Amino acid sequence: MASAIHPIPEPFLTTASFDAPALPGSDEAGRLMASLRASSEDFEALFQRYGQPAPALRHYGLIQWRDQQFTRAIEALRAALVLTPDDADLWRDLAGAYDRSGDAELADRCVRQSLCHRSDDACSWLLLANLESRGGRRNEAEAAFSHAIMCDPKLGDAHFGLGLLHFERRNIGAAVASLSLAIANGYANALGFTTQGHLKFLAGDFAGSAAAFENAARFGPLDLNGRRKFARARTIQAMIEGNLDQAIADYPNLAGDAREELDDILRDAFHQLSAFGREEAAVAVGRLLAAQNPDDPVQRYLLDAVSGRRLVRAPVDYLESCFDKFAKTFDQKLVNVLQYQAPELMARLITPIRESFSNMLDLGCGTGLAAAHLAPFGGRLTGVDVSGGMLDEAVKRGLYADLAKAEAVEFLAGCAARFDLVFAADMLVYLGDLRPLFDAVARSSALGGLFVISVETTEAADYQLLPSGRFAHAVAYLERLARPDFNVLVKQAAMIRLEAGRPAEGMFLALERRP
Questions:
Q1: Strand partners, 6
Q2: Among 37, 57, 161, 513, whose CB has the most other CB atoms within 10 angstroms?
């Protein structure tokens, strides 16, 4: 099925929203044509062939465009438009010439002019979509790609472009669907199948990923990244089918000169299998890794999580080891890859309630992502985290009055200060039983102070340890914990982050310390 058609944001195509490019006067166009007839045998032959100047100028302009003589192409196409100013194809051709010459603004104005003359031209919509996409205007690009597909459901370029746009937004399921339509409509080639292979891997379809890379290889050798991803996909699929030992034995031959360290393959396989709900295979790989690395607290805890062991919190040694390791790349992965925006959105949640605070506490501050969003509230800001590596990054922001390496409940138990804002973004996900934390925050909060939190949500139990090693909590459980000491001011459903390419559903809550 073609993608749903999205309304074009106003003003998107109204003539009042842009200035149509100025064309030369008729005298100037006439002089150009006379000059071309006198100096170019090619143009004279085209003029004799068509018997009309406009089609001859257009054909000549397209020849110049093909030969990358963009200035000449633009001159000829503009002159042709003087003679036929309502010709949608000519406006689209001129837009393409401007685009290839590097003038995106004039290309945009010309293609809109083309669409004003013929709004059902799929190729014009496609060009507009690509211009919008390259300009970073994703909503407009998606709308234009969708309109191109509406005009011509078999336009493979539009399906491919829409698939890449979905991928940029980390909407992996939609990206895979668009790539399948692209391949069915002209992209059954190395690029189409290779892209499909990478996307299906991200979607957890490892058999489909391997098959796509095999199809791509029919057109020529895969590049290094493609060979590595193919070998991983085949290996993980074999693990899903219960053939762990055979998968490990076969991996070197599958990867060939693209072979990676087996430990890296096993760790990635464990992550992928856990993320996509393949618990039986994940447990088998996890046990092997734990046997090979018995002192690794990260692997030990994640194996407990995927095995379904009932725990009340993530161990501190797991948190320290995990976040120390990823501290330097943490922001890039969390924000750019996993689309994490909780600190910013939670700060916006606070603004209508309070304009300022005198003493703020950022629990589980990590690298300090929340600091820039809390700074406008004024006052003193303290950060607390168990990871020394994360705190080293937080220091660089220069926005904390104090930073403490400590577990949250222990820090609050030993702290004499009273906070009028306790902020905990993506921190409660590492605790199952929240009663000790709620009690500690209540003791350390000024009357009327706010406790603002983010959680992933579940309806299965008060709290549930997920295969990711993160805890999800029931909203009713949070409200029950809050009731003795806090008023619930705001509850807001939220997409906390992406997990295995899918939104992790959650909730932001703002609680007020009751007198």
A1: none
A2: 57
